[in-house]
């Protein structure tokens, strides 16, 4: 599986994380302008808390050619999904990417 030709997980889940991963906290790295509040302690990537999630940092077309605008600074959940794992396969199936 080639993530650069997929992006399904960036357009399927709410990508939420501890607020201090954002760069308005000391040591934070995720650009806060690309996040939305979820609760007093949690944020998510903007666009992922919608009925049809789509991360605001995702460029390109899901299933064709994609890129993450903040790849080096992406939050923890983005680093945990691995190609071929259950979360990956569920997201791909939801986008009709079954091979
Ligand atoms: S981890 Fe899976 S769903 Fe996410 S971009 Fe890569 S192949 Fe697609
Ligand atoms: S921050 Fe990057 S890797 Fe994470 S969901 Fe958004 S586009 Fe995907």
Automatic annotation (TrEMBL):
- Alphabetized InterPro entries for the sequence: Puta_zinc/iron-chelating_dom (IPR005358)
Q: Which Pfam families match?
A: CxxCxxCC (PF03692)
Q: Which superkingdom heads the taxonomic lineage of this protein's source?
A: Bacteria
Q: What is this protein called?
A: Zinc/iron-chelating domain-containing protein
The organism's lineage is: Bacteria, Pseudomonadati, Pseudomonadota, Betaproteobacteria, Burkholderiales
